[in-house]
Amino acid sequence: MQRKFDGDQLVLASHNKGKLREISALLAPFGIHVSSAAEHGLEEPEETEDTFAGNARIKAHYAAKETGLPALSDDSGIAVEALNGAPGVYTADWAETPNGRDFPMAMEKTWKLLEEKNAPFPRKAAFVCTLCLAWPDGHDELFEGRVEGQVIWPARGEHGFGYDPMFVPEGFDITFGEMDQDKKQEMSHRADAFAKLVKGCFE
Ligand SMILES: O=P(O)(O)OP(=O)(O)OP(=O)(O)OC[C@H]1O[C@@H](n2cnc3c(O)ncnc32)[C@H](O)[C@@H]1O
Ligand SMILES: [Mg+2]
């Protein structure tokens, strides 16, 4: 059977350096020439949907249409159980300030809300990721990944990006910010979604 992805070029439809690093490493074994949205001079489309899949679609289809190449996007975030899944699709928005994104501030805000609610411990959370592979002809494939864990405070660790320093995956006592990044790549929400993408499109 012919595999669904039969090209040799892919645009990564993301402007997030942490994601670009992780997804490029995951793609490395497949011998695909990878370029980024920034290299193509693409703008960041507005993420107007209220689901990960909806926003992943917006980003991938925009990049595929603009470049004429298949494009892979990632829409992700952290869902905290006691906050009814917030910040969820609004994970990046919670970090927005007039001077750019401030993740220490966003993590502290998340923790303060849990304190105000007197939420029980462990304060369960999951990182979730939807990958969208879209082609210039307008068709696409979606893959969802997830990793369960809890949020902790104070945040710990200098590795990774975003909310990594406050997330402890299930079965561990260190945060994604403290974890060796090869280890995060084995077990993250992004790695989980990517494994499904490989099965669905690269095999
Ligand atoms: O939309 P693009 O350009 O891809 O980049 P973005 O940073 O805006 O990405 P999202 O809109 O998907 O928002 C995802 C948010 O969730 C956070 N996030 C996602 N995956 C993460 C991970 O593996 N570790 C830490 N934080 C993560 C990330 O920091 C963002 O604030
Ligand atoms: Mg975004």
TrEMBL record:
First-level EC class: hydrolase
GO molecular function: dITP diphosphatase activity; ITP diphosphatase activity; metal ion binding; nucleotide binding; ribonucleoside triphosphate phosphatase activity; XTP diphosphatase activity
Record InterPro entries: dITP/XTP_pyrophosphatase, ITPase-like_fam, RdgB/HAM1
Residue numbers binding Mg(2+): E46, D75
Entry annotation: catalytic residues: D75
Catalytic activity of the protein: ITP + H2O = IMP + diphosphate + H(+); XTP + H2O = XMP + diphosphate + H(+); dITP + H2O = dIMP + diphosphate + H(+)
Keyword Phosphoprotein: no
Binding site residues for substrate: S14, H15, N16, K17, G18, K19, S76, F161, G162, Y163, D164, K184, H189, R190
Assigned EC number: 3.6.1.66
GO cellular component assignments: cytosol
Cofactor stoichiometry and binding remark: Binds 1 Mg(2+) ion per subunit.
Cofactors named for this entry: Mg(2+)
Entries under Gene3D superfamilies matching the protein: 3.90.950.10
Pfam families named in the record: Ham1p_like
GO biological process: nucleotide metabolic process; purine nucleoside triphosphate catabolic process
Keywords: Hydrolase, Magnesium, Metal-binding, Nucleotide metabolism, Nucleotide-binding
Family: Belongs to the HAM1 NTPase family.
HAMAP family reported in the protein's UniProt record: Non_canon_purine_NTPase (MF_01405)
Assembly mode: Homodimer.
Role description: Pyrophosphatase that catalyzes the hydrolysis of nucleoside triphosphates to their monophosphate derivatives, with a high preference for the non-canonical purine nucleotides XTP (xanthosine triphosphate), dITP (deoxyinosine triphosphate) and ITP. Seems to function as a house-cleaning enzyme that removes non-canonical purine nucleotides from the nucleotide pool, thus preventing their incorporation into DNA/RNA and avoiding chromosomal lesions.
Protein name: dITP/XTP pyrophosphatase
Naturally occurring in which organism (per UniProt): Thalassovita mangrovi
